[in-house]
Structures are given as structure tokens and as C-alpha cells.
């Protein structure tokens, strides 16, 4: 179990390599939600996503003999960029197994940081088999996208900054983050538990990848009934590790559909004038769908990333 000191150490460790991203508000969105919203803008982070935090923290904790053959991971995009970024910072190769269906902009960015991209079929079995083969071939050190306490500690630092930089003068009633493999929500929940124990943590998940809500209810890692969502960063299932953190420190998980996700994404683009990707919009979509539940509350939302593929007939 990670301690508050572990989270503080992670924050100190990665500080030279990341941005302390701003916390922004929007009066129009507050009015639409009937609540006070504070957005932690990790779309402005290095690599365009919060994943830089966890990838960097894990890489910095590797021993010299672990680093010598580089880093390896599997990713739908943003974690792959994080590992590629960390490897470039530390002067080593990186190998990233990515689904062939991952957005081209994310594949290009991973390559742009100097990493080798190995494409696979778009499922977790193919991703894990691909990265296992790469590790056998190269001896690279695995940095898992979420099933790693070093990664979770790194991700927690976004919530630490959100709590410390809250511009409202009111404590948060709720802090919300999207749920994919569970690394961010685990770190968010831990940071909130230690620093703002009266604040509820709520996970936000697409209906088209709804494994976390099932796992949360059953206490076992479950598979989603089906995978079909525009939120490409949230398709991975939980691990036993992340489910453990979620069951202990997360109050609830709420679902939204792709129409609601796209509408929330468009609102942020139009009203806040900032670019976010679909996975990033899921928490705002939850607040707008469940307005009665969140009415009158002060809510912190982690905007997770802004890596959008503008090709292939892009619309919003």
C-alpha cells in the first residue's frame, strides 16, 4: 500500500520533468451543471496527458542495470508517449506495443519521441503478448500502464496539485477522474484520502467499456460486456491492484454514453477554448448526466489529455 510519503516523494522526483498544469474554471459550464467545477488541465502536460507523471516516476526509480536495455510497455497511446518521453529524457531506447486501431496522432507522437512502435490487434491479450515478446527479445524493463505502484504514485500528483491549487476557496465535495485500467483513479483516490479525506472520489466510465463498474460492485476483476466507445484511452480492464485501491477509496463509478461524451468534449472546446480528447470528457459528461446528484457541489475534474487525431474526417 502506498503511503502519503510515497506520493510526496513521487511529486518531488518528477517535478523537474513535468509541468504544474493550471486549474481552470468556466462560469458557463458551472451554470449548465448547477455546480462549481474546477478543471485540472493535464491536456497541457508534457506529451499532452497526465501519463507523463506515472511513466516518468516509474522510469526514474529503475536501477541502472534495469535501465540498460531500455523501457517497454503496451498502450493505446498516452502511456506509450509517456514511456517514450521518459526514455528520451534518460537516454535509452523504448519499445511500445500499440493496437493497430490507436489514433495515428498517438502512434506518430510515440515515434516522435524516438520509440519503436509495434502494432498489435486491439485487445488486452494481444497487447500483453506483444510486450512479453519484446521484453524477451530486448531485455527492456516493463513499465506497465497502470498495474504498478510507481505509476500510480506518479499519477497521484495531479490530484495533489488540484487539491493544493484549488482556486475556489471551498474544499472539494467531489474529485472525479475517468477510469480505464485504474492507475489514475487509484492515485487520485489515494491523494484525496490522505489530503482531503472528507472529499468523495467518483470514477467516470464509458458505457462501451464498462468493466470497472462491474468489478467495483462484485469485488472481482470483470470484463466489459462489450467494447465500443470513442473514449479510446479507457478500454483497458482493471488489475487486481487497481481494483483494490478503487474498492477501498473510491465512492462510486458512473457511466455515460458516447453521445454524452462527445457533447461534453464539444462544450469544453467551445466554452473553455481548450482541446481535450474524448476520454478526457467523460467526467464532465457524468456531471451533466447526473446533475441532481452533484447540484450545488464543488467538483474537481482531472482533464486527462488533449491528444486528438484531426485526420480521417474528424468532427466534433
UniProtKB/TrEMBL annotation:
PANTHER family: SERINE / THREONINE RACEMASE FAMILY MEMBER, SERINE RACEMASE. Its cofactor is pyridoxal 5'-phosphate. It holds the Pfam family PALP. GO terms for molecular function: ATP binding; L-serine ammonia-lyase activity; magnesium ion binding; pyridoxal phosphate binding; serine racemase activity; threonine racemase activity. Belongs to the serine/threonine dehydratase family. Keywords: Lyase, Pyridoxal phosphate. The keyword Lyase applies. This is Threonine/serine dehydratase. It comes from Fibrella rubiginis. Residues 14-305 form the Tryptophan synthase beta chain-like PALP domain. GO terms for biological process: D-serine biosynthetic process.
Amino acid at each position: 500500500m502506498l503511503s502519503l510519503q510515497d506520493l510526496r516523494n513521487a511529486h518531488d522526483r518528477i517535478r523537474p520533468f513535468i509541468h504544474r498544469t493550471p486549474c481552470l474554471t468556466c462560469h458557463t459550464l458551472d451554470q449548465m451543471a448547477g455546480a462549481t467545477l474546477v478543471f485540472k488541465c493535464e491536456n497541457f502536460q508534457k506529451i499532452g496527458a497526465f501519463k507523463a507523471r506515472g511513466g516518468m516516476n516509474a522510469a526514474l526509480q529503475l536501477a541502472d542495470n534495469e535501465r540498460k536495455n531500455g523501457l517497454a510497455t503496451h498502450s493505446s497511446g498516452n502511456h506509450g508517449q509517456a514511456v517514450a518521453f521518459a526514455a528520451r529524457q534518460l537516454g535509452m531506447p523504448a519499445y511500445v506495443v500499440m493496437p493497430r486501431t490507436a489514433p495515428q496522432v498517438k502512434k506518430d507522437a510515440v515515434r516522435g519521441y524516438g520509440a519503436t512502435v509495434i502494432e498489435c490487434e486491439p485487445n488486452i491479450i494481444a497487447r500483453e503478448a506483444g510486450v512479453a515478446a519484446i521484453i524477451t527479445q530486448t531485455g527492456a524493463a516493463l513499465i506497465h500502464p497502470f498495474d504498478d505502484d510507481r505509476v500510480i504514485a506518479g499519477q497521484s500528483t495531479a490530484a495533489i496539485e488540484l487539491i493544493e491549487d484549488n482556486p475556489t476557496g471551498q474544499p472539494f465535495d467531489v474529485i472525479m477522474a475517468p477510469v480505464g485500467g485504474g492507475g489514475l483513479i487509484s492515485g487520485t483516490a489515494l491523494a484525496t484520502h490522505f489530503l482531503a479525506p472528507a472529499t468523495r472520489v467518483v470514477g467516470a466510465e464509458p458505457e462501451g467499456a464498462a468493466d470497472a463498474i462491474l468489478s467495483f460492485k462484485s469485488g472481482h476483476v470483470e470484463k466489459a460486456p462489450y467494447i465500443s466507445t470513442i473514449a479510446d484511452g479507457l478500454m483497458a480492464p482493471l488489475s487486481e491492484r487497481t481494483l483494490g485501491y478503487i474498492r477501498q477509496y473510491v465512492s462510486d463509478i458512473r457511466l455515460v454514453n458516447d453521445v454524452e461524451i462527445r457533447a461534453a468534449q464539444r462544450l469544453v472546446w467551445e466554452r473553455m477554448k481548450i482541446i481535450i480528447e474524448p476520454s478526457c470528457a467523460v467526467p464532465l459528461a457524468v456531471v451533466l448526466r447526473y446533475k441532481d446528484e452533484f447540484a450545488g457541489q464543488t467538483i474537481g475534474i482531472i482533464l486527462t489529455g488533449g491528444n486528438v487525431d484531426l485526420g480521417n474526417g474528424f468532427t466534433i
